[in-house]
Design brief:
Rossmann fold, 7-stranded parallel beta sheet, 13 strands
């Protein structure tokens, strides 16, 4: 209806298909917010948006504007970044010509509220003061950079060190440009270095209700790990699972099958494939991967934010094993609705428990599903966002 207020949203990626966490979060937010707002959506994109994807999002929007990011522009912006203190990822997504167009759209639509996903898009709207603005930090990106300093080779670690320091400053500086701030987890909130960080509203990710209702399927795989496999924490997790955990399981007499399911697998992930390890790449319906698997294992030792993969696996009733780092944002209880491990031997021991003790397998899986259903549905989480923006 035309009497709805206008919400102007700026995103660093087109929010479909849902192979990345920021796209998944944005898509479900758009679905919920469209009931209360006319949404004018502005998205950066590196590739042409397919018609099917455009139409999937367009049904929830008043207007959609996409802005192409070219490699030539990236090189120029990267060069300019060395002369400033802005993070490289802010420069990556910024183009002055796109800034001018977005400013024209703001003047044209005169929105009632601006919603900016991720600090990398803040430069486009931070100086517009004719309506309230909300920024979704999502994760403490600086903390993610800091964790990668120790895991990257020396010839890359200098970059992550520089980016870490710039992100700390930028996360603090951008805070005061926005009337409202949201973030995915309390854990990430604590890593935003601003004296008023407790004003940030924690709004976790959710799970689509359809994950709770998927029909039972024949199990083909013992272990499953999912994610965008071009993302370094997921690459490292997959390699750890295959190179460290599987050999010890085999020594114990468990020659298990593993499915690595997710978009854009890196060459390191593709090289893991064998007669017992299956690398699927992108699948149209990720629920099929969960339904075909018995146990979800997520050895996440770097990265930030709430892991959608854990929410989805638990919603599908899979018993899950992960690290305390990944569980900190989730808030599940070790031994009740999830199992936690930090060392390879502990991962192996807990996988063996699930493989051999059906009672424990069923109990953790069922309680994990109830935990997610009660705490992490998208409808429940997006109610908080609606109250903040309306």
């Amino acid at each position: 209806m035309n009497d709805k207020p206008i919400l102007f949203m700026v995103l660093s990626r087109f929010p479909y298909p849902l192979e990345k966490g920021d796209k998944l979060r944005a898509f479900h937010q758009i679905k919920s917010l469209s009931e209360h707002f006319r949404i004018v959506l502005c998205c950066m994109t590196e590739i042409a948006v397919e018609e099917k994807a455009f139409q999937e999002v367009n049904r929830y929007c008043h207007e959609i504007h996409t802005f192409q990011l070219t490699k030539a522009g990236l090189l120029w912006q990267a060069a300019l970044t060395f002369l400033t203190n802005k993070p490289f990822q802010v420069a990556y997504f910024y183009r002055y010509r796109h800034f001018r167009k977005i400013r024209q759209l703001l003047q044209q639509h005169k929105p009632n509220h601006i919603f900016c996903q991720l600090l990398r898009m803040a430069e486009y709207v931070k100086d517009y003061h004719l309506c309230p603005k909300t920024i979704d930090y999502m994760d403490a990106l600086s903390k993610g950079m800091e964790r990668r300093i120790a895991t990257e080779p020396w010839y890359k670690s200098w970059f992550f060190s520089v980016e870490f320091k710039r992100l700390v400053r930028y996360e603090r500086a951008i805070f005061d440009y926005f009337e409202h701030k949201v973030i995915i987890s309390k854990q990430d909130l604590q890593f935003i270095h601003h004296p008023k960080r407790n004003d940030i509203v924690v709004i976790p990710n959710g799970v689509d209700e359809s994950f709770f209702e998927f029909p039972a399927t024949e199990k083909k795989y013992d272990l499953l790990f999912t994610g965008n496999f071009s993302y370094p924490p997921n690459i490292e997790g997959a390699c750890y699972l295959i190179h460290e955990i599987l050999p010890l399981l085999k020594k114990r007499g468990f020659n298990v099958s593993v499915l690595l399911s997710g978009a854009a697998p890196h060459s390191r992930v593709l090289s893991l494939a064998s007669d017992r390890v299956f690398v699927s790449g992108w699948v149209d319906d990720i629920r099929e991967s969960y339904a075909q698997s018995r146990i979800f294992v997520a050895p996440m030792f770097i990265g930030t934010g709430l892991q959608n993969k854990l929410l989805e696996a638990m919603a599908m009733g899979l018993p899950c094993i992960t690290t305390s780092l990944a569980n900190n944002a989730l808030g599940a209880t070790d031994g009740e609705n999830i199992l936690l491990a930090e060392q390879t031997e502990v991962f192996v021991e807990k996988i063996v428990v699930f493989l051999t003790q059906k009672g424990m397998f069923d109990e953790i899986g069922n309680k994990g599903q109830l935990f997610v259903k009660h705490n992490y549905s998208w409808s429940y989480q997006n109610e908080k966002l609606v109250k903040l923006l309306v």
